[in-house]
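User: Predict the structure for this protein chain, please.
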Amino acid sequence: MVGDGSSGQRQQQQQRAPAAAASPAAARGGESPGDKAEPEEDCMGCRLTGLMLGLGGAGYLSSALWVDPPPRGAHRAAILAASAALLALGLGRAAGF
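Assistant: Here is the predicted structure, written as structure tokens:
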């Protein structure tokens, strides 16, 4: 049977159309889940866990400053910088950044 090929295209469109109409993205006007304008907010437990991990990591790293002999120079600066970074990340996580 010789055809113009349009029947095959129609069948493909008919197969795709119900799936696209049934998807939530089609109901919202064609937006995909990655195109959200506002990010989802985290639960309070997730924020508290992030805060505690940041504070705990900062405290653990900064405890190396009280060993005998104390770190000097670049080693001390690296410990302070890493502790400050973990503290900032924990606080930022709690604030929702």
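The CA atoms of residues 26 and 63 lie 54 Å apart.
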